[in-house]
Amino acid sequence: MEAILQKDRLGQWVAQLSTRARVFAPAFVDDVWGYGPVETGAEVPLDHGNTTRPPKNFVFPQREVLYRFRVQDRHAPQITPTVPEPEPAVVFGVRPCDGRAMVRNDKVFTCGVVDPYYQARRDKVVFVGLACSAPPSPNCFCQSVGGSPHSEDGLDVLMTELEGRYHVKTLTARGLELLDAARSLFDDAGAADAGEVERAHAAARAYPQRTLASQEQVVDGLKRNFDSPKWAELARACIGCGACTYLCPSCHCFDINDEITGTSPLAGERVRTWDNCQFPDFTMHSSGHNPRDDTGSRLRQRVAHKLLYFVENHGIQQCTGCGRCITHCPVGIDIVRVTHEVAEV
Amino acid sequence: MNANVYLPQLARIAHIKDEVGGARAIKTFRVEFLDGGGFEHECGQCAMISVFGKGESMISIASAPSIKDYKQFSIMRVGRVTAAIHDMQVGDVIGVRGPYGNRFPVADWKGRNLTFIGGGCGLAPIWPVIQTAVANRGDFGNITVFYGGRTSRDILYRAELEKLRGMADVHLSVDSPEEGWEGYCGFVPANIMDKPQSPENAIAITCGPPIMIKYVIGNLSAMGFADEQIYTTIENKMKCGVGKCGRCNVGKDYVCVKGPVYSWAELKGLPQEY
Predict the structure, then answer these.
(1) Nearest-Cα residue of chain B relative to residue A312
(2) Global pTM?
(3) Range 119-178 of A in CB contact (< 8 A) with B
(4) Is A100 within 8 Å of A321 (Cβ atoms)?
(5) Using one digit for the tens of pLDDT, what is the confidence trace for B177-215?
(6) In this predicted complex, what is the ipTM?
(7) Is the torsion defined by CA of A48, A50, A56, A61 positive or negative?
(8) Does domain B106-233 have CATH number 3.40.50.80?
(9) Matching CATH number, B9-100, of 2.40.30.10, 2.40.160.40, 2.40.10.120, 3.30.950.10
């Protein structure tokens, strides 16, 4: 359904939702623009550029305990699974590129073998999207990877900012529940509102954006130039910091390690943490053999995973054009430029 | 399979055999699942071994699928987890989850001549196929096994290989001449060139160090083997086993799901990132 929320009622809506779920919105967390809990009565900042940290953490936290173990002498270890039972969460201010990234994450974690940790979190989080009225970043290219400033994919609600008010469109049953929780705060959306929404969306689409060549051109170009010497040239400056993948809303690679919490008896946690294909030891065998032992092959892995392999496996590009990896690369490696140079498109 | 894919089943080490000593020690562990646990597997599949407090490692299942009472793993001491399991004793409990990966299409090979070519620890992943082939000897044509270790002290399954004679042609090798060694002296790829195999109605299965596999495949091609007649099993670093952690990704494939078994024809279609 579609409805209108006056801007001065947003706080009341959030207060109402806070009685049934934890509400999150863009905030500085550890001095980085990400998502934080909304304090009761505080303003919900929806006039921001996109967050530096994507909302990936809500479904796939950077560190997560898979289970705890305890080993008494030589007895059989006791294993206690720690599949989360999260409180319901509502996340405001999610941009359409990050909503579309959730669709990609769902494919990785819930198609075929279901990841129970991801699924438990995913079931409890509702994403309230915010349509972009202008590119939040000069490196946005959502429109050339199948998205748009007002894409609805992966979101439960889409809010569009209008003069003095928000147009609020529910996209899923869970989104509708958020409106039903505070129905009296909303006005009906009329024909004039619909026209204004359409004009706002059209203006956002018309705003200049960077462009990436079409999916078909990129797939074809990357295949043709897979062994291009340009990978090594373009990756020469890479310092392997991994900012590109840590800040990516759809990068999902992870490591699993044991962390010891006690030695007598032996106790510890099996922990999953984000990992990074740009790290030299990501693929290193215990023998020392490393299948991707140079920055060129590692850059190729990231670009080809996003724009070639994911298309081959799922029929869609994994990249949603948020531009974070470009903005935050300390040495200026740019996925759009790299793709165009290598693929010769 | 457990609904939580990351939870291992518990298995007790029932038997440990020292295969190879020294800096690159190999031991074979026979493990029995606790509490009626366990799983069926196919030739070529792997399992994730846990040593609690150390971590997990993906290891080929070296016992034949027909053996239901235990699983066997031949493990070289190379890293944190493999060193920890080498230090374990009979009766200790480890975690095992799996099976992971695809299989050697053994059923499709009935009536064909099989040539196995292994080097070092690479005999373990193809051992279930060898065991299955000799156990069903009448289903296959000639069975030939080439296997080489660096020295005679590095030969895995020495006694079992000797027992194969009579059921299969066995050609062992060591890298350099040694006093008392009656087999071939030289690298495995050279040993197969010394005793060329006919590609007629044949399948070649190879596993070993990457450099050995490369030259073996080159030599098989020179003998006339088509890419579809050559099978190998590759390994990459793995963490999840279910195509999510991204470690083993080669091209569009996750080796833990689409592999580890590939024909050379299939492998040629992937980037050489293994």
Answers:
(1) B252
(2) 0.95
(3) none
(4) no
(5) 999 999 999 999 999 999 999 999 999 999 999 899 999
(6) 0.94
(7) negative
(8) yes
(9) 2.40.30.10
